[in-house]
Amino acid sequence: LPVAYRRLLPDLAPPRAKPARPLPCHPSPGRRLPAMDSAHVENDLVNVLFTEAQIQQRLQEMAEEIERDYEGEELLIVGILRGAVMVMADLARSFSRHIEMDWMAVSSYGSGTKSSGVVRILKDLDTDISGRHVVIVDEIIDTGLTLSWLTSNLSSRNPASVQIATLLRKPEALQMPVDVKYVGWDIPNEFVVGYGLDYREKYRNLRDIGTLAPHVYS
Ligand code: IMP
Ligand code: MG
To answer: Could you tell me if 176 and 143 are in contact, meaning their C-beta atoms sit under 8 angstroms apart?
Structure first.
């Protein structure tokens, strides 16, 4: 199992007592996901936390809040690959103003079995951010180690400001204080997939966010 997940799996909540909700993303023809391993991707979800519609609604609200805060200023939003791809795409299109987009890719964990706070830049920004207002966009903040490191890294490049927007945050998992200005939702310390979030690189293409059925892990 990849290191990051081995760390997260013990936190996986036991199967819920309540029956799994039927998935809201079924079954309009245009929205069916391709079959994977003879089963549809959604079948592995045991519980949907946020539907596609809820996510879009929340991103719209976040975009409006950001627009108000940066009125009259130029704004660069920086997506953290690969998980933030969906959030970036939908958040960016929720703005009714001009923004610029750039991307970074980082590896959050070193060679150890625990998250070390050591972050390696795999792909740096193409943009010189000195004097610019930057909002880092991520899909989830877990321990906070990645974003805490990233914020200080970007801050050292003399930007006008650096803030963070994340769709999800797990307050119970936080190990490093991270000043997050825009949060979609705080969630319990459970492993979630979908909408950019992966388990072993899969499930990113789900439109909803949910928890995986225990059989997936065994
Ligand atoms: P951290 O905040 O530095 O611990 O790292 C956050 C990264 O770990 C995220 O950007 C995700 O890639 C990954 N991650 C953390 N929690 C989850 C989860 O519940 N599902 C999928 N990936 C997760
Ligand atoms: Mg990420």
So the answer is: yes
